[in-house]
TrEMBL record:
Record InterPro entries: Glutathione-S-Trfase_C_sf (IPR036282), Glutathione_S-Trfase_N (IPR004045), Thioredoxin-like_sf (IPR036249)
Key words of the record: Transferase
Listed SUPFAM superfamilies: GST C-terminal domain-like, Thioredoxin-like
UniProt organism field: Altererythrobacter xiamenensis
Boundaries of every GST N-terminal domain copy: 5-84
Listed name of the protein: Glutathione S-transferase
UniProt KW Electron transport keyword: no
Amino acid sequence: MPRSDDIILHHYDASPFSNKVRMLLGLKGLAWQSVVTPNMMPKPDLVSLTGGYRRAPVMQIGADIYCDSQVIMAEIERRFPEPLADVGPSWPINLWADRIWFQHSVAIIFGSLGDKVDPAFIEDREKLSGRPFDVKAMAAAAEPAKAQWRAQAGWIESALTSSKTDFLCGATATIADLAAYMNIWFLASVFPDMASDLLKGFDQLNGWRASIEQIGQGERQEISGADAIMVAAEAEPAETTPGQAEPEAGLGMIGEKVIVSADDYGRDPIAGELIACDHQRTVIRRTDSATGTVTITFPQVGFLMRETTKGA
Ligand SMILES: N[C@@H](CCC(=O)N[C@@H](CS)C(=O)NCC(=O)O)C(=O)O
C-alpha cells in the first residue's frame, strides 16, 4: 500500500502531457506510484479524486491533488528542488509548447491517422473540446501543419545554436527542455520517421534530443485506482488550511464556494471551497464519499474561477 507522502501519478503511457511529467520525475531521480487511467471517459476513480477534472496527468500526494502538468511540475519542483529544473523562461516556454506547438502536433498526427482513429475516441474528444473532431479537416490541415511544426522545432535549433549551451536554459535540462521535447516525443511515438524527417538538418536539436532521451522516468511502480482512493481517504490534506494564504486582489475570497474550470478544453466545472489563491495557483477543498476531504490545486494560468453565488 502506498504511503501518504508517495507521489501518485494518474496518467496513461501514450499521453504526451503525462510523459513530460514522467520525465521530470526521471530528471529528479524520484520513485513514484503509477495509476494508469483510461484515455477516454468514463474515468470514475480519477473524477472522484478530482471532483470532475478528467484530463491526464493528475498528481496525488496523500489527500492533495494537483491538476494540469504546469502545477504538477511546479509542485514537484517545490518539494524536490534538486536538481533545479525551474530555470529562466521555463514557464512561458512550457505554455507555448503545450498550447501552440501542441496544436500542430495534434493536427499532423490525427490528420495523418485519418480513418484509423477509433470512432469512440472521436466522440470522446468532441465532448472534451465542444467542437467537431473533424478528421477530414485535420487531414487537409496536416501538410500545412508540418511546416508550422518544423518552423517551431527550428526555434529550438536556433536557441541552442545562439546560446551555445546544451539545453534551452543553460548547461542542464530544465522544464523548458522537457516541455519542448513533449511535442517531439508525441509525434515520434506515432510517426517516428515523419518526426526524423521534420527534424532533418537540425544538428543541435538532434543532439539535444538524444541527451533528453537519456533522462528516463524515475522509478515507477503500478498501483490501482482503488489503492489511490484509499490513500486519499486515509490521509489528511496537507495543502494550505483556510486563512493561511491571502488571495491576490480580485482573485477570489477565501472560504467562498467556487467553481474552477480549464479555459481551453475539458472545461468540466470543479466545485469546492476556496482555501488558497495567489498569482500562480488556486487551491480548493472538497469532500467526496469515496475519498473524504481532499484539496485540489490548479495553476492560475489556464484556469478560470468564479464564485458559485455569482451565477451559472
Ligand atoms: N493543460 C493540460 C492538458 C492535458 C491534456 O490535454 N491531456 C490529454 C492527454 S495528453 C487529455 O487529458 N486528453 C483527454 C483524456 O485523456 O481524457 C496539462 O498541461 O496537463
